[in-house]
Amino acid sequence: MSPAPRHRSGTLAGVLVLALTASACSVANTDRSSVTDPDTLRIVLSQEPPTLEACDVSQTSIGVVTRSNITEPLMERNPTTGDLEPKLADSWEQNSDRQWTFRLHPGVTFSDGRPFEAADAAHSIERTVNSDIGCNVEGYVFGDADLTVAVVDPLTLTVAAPNPDPILPLRISFVEMVPRTASITEREREPVGTGPFAIDTWDYGQRLTLVRNDRYWGPRPEFARAVYQWRSEGSIRASMVSGDEADIATGIGPEDGAGDLGVAYPNNETTAVRIQVGEPPLDDIRVRQAINYSINRNGIVHALFRDLGRPAAQLVSPGVVGYDDDLEAWPYDTEKARALLDEARADGVPVDAKIRLIGRTGQFPKVNETLEVVQNALSELGMNISIEMMDSAGTSQYQERPFPADAGPYLLVIQHGNQAGDSAFTVDQYFTSDGFQSAYGTPEFDAEIAAAGQLTGDARQDAYARLFEEEPTKIMQMAYIAHMEGVLAKSDRVDYTPDSATVDEMHLAAMTHADDESNATGR
Question: Is residue 499 a contact partner of residue 265, using CB atoms and an 8 Å limit?
């Protein structure tokens, strides 16, 4: 596996700092009772998690709270090296091209005191992958493939795939462990796990509090509590940190006013417009090409993202197996776009039909402005584009199969992060004919994807790179926008170094008290 990119962090010196009226006063509903508590982390997110369900952690708004805080996987990918490292499993070994044996760490308990054993691990895998719950992890990682799971003894289990799978342990690393009593038919909003923290209280719509799990089998976290709140406006989140009402604020934009408290880091997210190919006029490749030609990627990255990112030519970022650094972003050429639409119109394609442009509120900094830029570019070509902003529950029905019937033609702004470091987790769900988040595919391209998934080493890298090179001509259901960089605001009382996985999973145990010297040189 190719190594993940080394992270870099630093203050956002020199960016425009907004003069925020909100910074001079308390933000409504802020948990002021915890302000002076040195053992409480105060975190503000862009949105409230819809659930903390362990089998949905591949959804960013859930995983950033749940994963490796409340629940834990058997193994965990190091975002810097790309290596799988032990977590609840001490070791794993391959028995055949389909089956692996996993040996668990002894003495682990859930936060409620029950022991964690192979029966719990087997149940967690069955529940996530083989049940009818419809877990997000199942669609993102496993597709329609069911696994065969067997308990060997209290600390050993075997897992077998239906077909040869050289990256089965990497897939299993996405399964968070829950007790064997967890429902096999329904989601559980507040899971019990083995992680360093447990759910204390959740005042829906207000705040969520986690407390340190005193039964935790690993190193004891420094902070005893974590209080999460959510504000949709990045400037308000930044002002909560600068006003000492929060310690960490995620999803900050360069103009949100974080100043020297802003920390930039490369993440694994790529933004794109997914084109719902099955509906006219979007089923005509000339229209899809025109959409690609109309997007000024360099302009968006420079003007909206303040160069915190770079134009994208593929759906994976550097460090992911299959990433091709030689691919160039689709050129910006409005004349070609106009000519393609004129040609399609002359052939009877209804290029003037109303097309919905759907985005998720708070999905990334400047998301609203990004949609407006795309809308304006397409409107200038004579297309009829209408913007619709929704919350995560609203957009998921348009992003994941089965798509809603009679939705009409629509474009969906997505942000995809390949948390696993292997392109299988991207192409299987976005480029296959029946992929979990795919709007189009062909049998021929499906066969190429399947063949790439059986390879290892350099051959695997080359095969996936070739797929990304071919997608714009053989499929073209994407208009890639940018490989993103993340920014968070961090109080000077907390030491924390974000990395490429932070946007998907933010480990509370990695946050520590800043030393006296750091506090002395702070604001």
Answer: yes
